[in-house]
Amino acid sequence: MKLLLKEVLEHEVYPAMGCTEPVAVALCAARAAGLLKKPAARVEVRLDPGTFKNGLAVALPNTGGRKGNALAAAVGAVLADHRAGAGIFKGLSGKSLEAARALLRSGAVSLKPDHSKRGIYMAVKVFAGRDSALCVVAGGHSRVVRLERNGKPLRTGRGAERPSGLPAYKRLLKAAHFGDLVAAAESAGPAELAYIEKGVKMNLRAAAAGMEVGKVGYYLKDLTDKGFLRQDAVTLAKTLSASATDARMAGMSLPVMSSGESGNQGVVASLVPWTVGRAFKVPKKKILRSIALSHMVNAYIKVFTGELAPICGCAVAAGVGAAAAIVYQRRGGDRRALTLAVNNVISDIGGMLCDGAKSGCALKVASSADSAIRAAWMAAAGEGITEEEGFIGSTAEETIRNIARISKAGMGEVDRIMLDIMAGKNFG
């Protein structure tokens, strides 16, 4: 189980600047452009519906608040260097930004959703004179499965574009039970705990900076300062989480620690259990282990729902992870309490729709934080929703499979309609 925790922390919990999907698009374009010897003249981008949706309305770091996957692809093509990883926008200069915008203005960047793809899929082809290069990413935001130059393959990930092509650690996760996730969290040693604490501090800095944006976190604090909300752990957890999300969605140039390859989910998964644990004077080591469990649960759920589902991952994945973490702080690995926590959150906000990354995500993050704490408090006291009600299962695992089935099989048309509505807008 210790190995599984290390794999999740390595592949899904890492610092990221800017919204995950457009960052990944920029990196994919940069990889392709880096294979050419000349500046990019044209860029063609195909994306799965979820990635297309998530990059439509979110601001990109160091771009003056400009938005969109097309600009992200243009930036990547201009930079032609993927070595900065998830921090690709950190060193973006005014000159490079202007070159990317010029590429856009010339009509040289085409962007299309590919409705045949499920899960993360990006294909970016870059042209320079008679030369071309292709990069395909599938099954994960940084999982390169194909590289081509002038039609000749340089690298191919065997089976990576098929649903069966899950990485080994995800196959282990899919076969795991909640007891395995608890055991993985409890296996965290000093190095893992220090890394998790580093992520908490990173996200707290983002929360402090997010107050400057003057959006959801700011107004939650304003309500608290004026006495309309209680100054307690619940309000603080909602405010910090929302403010950190405000910072990310506004394109502020600072990183957060992600979870499940999502920055907003990383905010919920870490700051909610951290704030509650500190308020109730839980020993720091136990708080950090609870956050390890939060990351594990988030990753576990997303194996079933998919990385980019029609329902909000901050609710049904990170919110559930945060609730499980709080139960762990109070009741350890109590199986029934953990099951009730899962059931309570999913029964409450399981239907929250994902309509892409944008400033409104901070509202969903605040709701997820509130639900997670309420659900955990009830569950730790032995109270919660059982299989007698609605689509809730008899175990945590069954409830998660049920919501995943609803999301994948039942909401495909909902997702397509949302995408059609969003794609018809001009985000500038």
What does this structure look like?
By secondary structure, the protein is of the alpha+beta class. The protein has two domains: 19-156, 60s Ribosomal Protein L30, Chain: A (2-Layer Sandwich); 176-423, no CATH class. Helices cover 56% and strands 10% of the residues. The protein has helices at 2-12, 20-33, 49-54, 69-79, 94-105, 168-175, 178-186, 190-210, 216-225, 233-249, 263-279, 284-305, 313-331, 335-349, 361-380, 396-410, 412-423, and strands at residues 15-16, 42-47, 109-113, 121-128, 131-138, 144-149, 152-156, 256-257. Helix 8 (190-210) packs across helix 11, helix 12 runs antiparallel to helix 13 (313-331) and helix 13 packs antiparallel against helix 14. The protein is globular and about 65 Å long. Mean pLDDT is 93; it is low at 158-164.
Brief overview, please?
This protein is α+β, with helices and mostly antiparallel strands and 428 residues long. Helix content is 56%, strand content 10%.
